[in-house]
User: What shape does this take?
Amino acid sequence: MLNHKDDDKFIELKEVCKKIKSTDIRTAINWCKKTGIPIITRGNKKLTYRFLVEIELDKDIIQFLQSKYPKSWKKMYLLYIKNDKFEYILETQDKRI
Assistant: This one.
């Protein structure tokens, strides 16, 4: 999710299909239009911005973390991005121990 190279700025709609659990490119096109993500045509490929796709896919987890951890949701989201389960567990343990 983070630390993509500059050439990873774009994502093919075929890959978007995989991320949204679809097999039809038309579904990915409609999903992009619905969420306001622009589609770019380069040659015979349809592309969009990886960053915008990932943010749209992460909106639900961000809303969950904001409601559950209003003061530390940003830190919790970074742990989610890093897939740091150990630190997440430490952060969520009862601090009274």
User: Anything to note?
Assistant: The chain has a mean pLDDT of 89. The radius of gyration is 17 Å. Helices lie at 13-19, 25-35, 50-68, 73-82, 85-92.
